[in-house]
Amino acid sequence: MEAIQHAALTLAEKAGFEQVTTEMIAAEAGISPRTFFNYFPFKEAAFIPARIVLPEEDRRRFCEARGTVAEDLLQLMEAARPNLPQNREMLRMCKLIASENSRLMAMNFDFLREVEEQLTQLFHARGGHVGGARASLMAALTTAAIRNAFERWIDGEGETPEEMTAANIAVLAPIFEGSAEELAAAE
């Protein structure tokens, strides 16, 4: 899949996104057009980084955990690590091409909304003082922290996106760990 995506990005960098066809991508990747569609449902999907997959067992563990929200969130992100894109150059190319195409930008936004919705559900399911508006705000902040970490990493900061995410979550920890009275007042 990465070879197909690399072919798509290389072609778009040379010829422009609009000029690239699925047939061109397949030829560049050394596969048939039919094989392309086994991996991507349409051309634009080859220009979007892999989805963040939060394994079900780790989602359950997060909901049942009793550590600090920030610590447990970092464990959840660590569990997702094998599914996260790690090729900085490919992500840089995705970001550049998406910045020039409104459909790709919208797809990236939809992807981030999916992450935020997953996190909102997890914060709700965690129970205790994390519910209602607070759960959705915590999910929005976490999603922004992840996005910011990846964008900064893509732009050359830090050793890994996980390192950058951990630093951002550490900044949010005091907000996540407010006293029960403060949390109840915020609802």
Walk me through the structure.
GO terms for molecular function: DNA-binding transcription factor activity; transcription cis-regulatory region binding. InterPro entries: Homeodomain-like_sf (IPR009057), HTH-type_TetR-like_transc_reg (IPR050109), HTH_TetR (IPR001647). This is TetR family transcriptional regulator. It comes from Pseudoroseicyclus tamaricis. Keywords: DNA-binding, Transcription, Transcription regulation. This protein has 187 residues and is mainly α. The protein has two domains: 45 residues, Arc Repressor Mutant, subunit A, CATH 1.10.10; 139 residues, Tetracycline Repressor, domain 2 (Orthogonal Bundle). Helices cover 71% and strands 0% of the residues. The chain contains ten helices and no strands. Helix 7 packs across helix 8 and helix 8 runs antiparallel to helix 9. It is elongated and about 55 Å long. The termini are far apart.
CATH hierarchy class name of the largest domain = Mainly Alpha
Low-pLDDT parts are 179-184
- The second-level CATH architecture of the largest domain is Orthogonal Bundle
Largest sheet: none
- The geometry reads as elongated
Radius of gyration over C-alpha positions, nearest whole angstrom = 19 Å
Specify the CATH homologous superfamily of the largest domain: Tetracycline Repressor, domain 2
CATH topology (fold) name of the largest domain:
Tetracycline Repressor, domain 2
Number of helices: 10
State the helicity in percent bands: over 70%
Mean pLDDT: 88
SS class: mainly alpha
By DSSP, the count of extended strands is 0
- The share of residues in extended strands comes to under 5%
* First-to-last CA distance: 44 Å
Keywords: DNA-binding, Transcription, Transcription regulation
InterPro entries: Homeodomain-like_sf, HTH-type_TetR-like_transc_reg, HTH_TetR
Domain HTH tetR-type: 1-58
GO molecular function: DNA-binding transcription factor activity; transcription cis-regulatory region binding
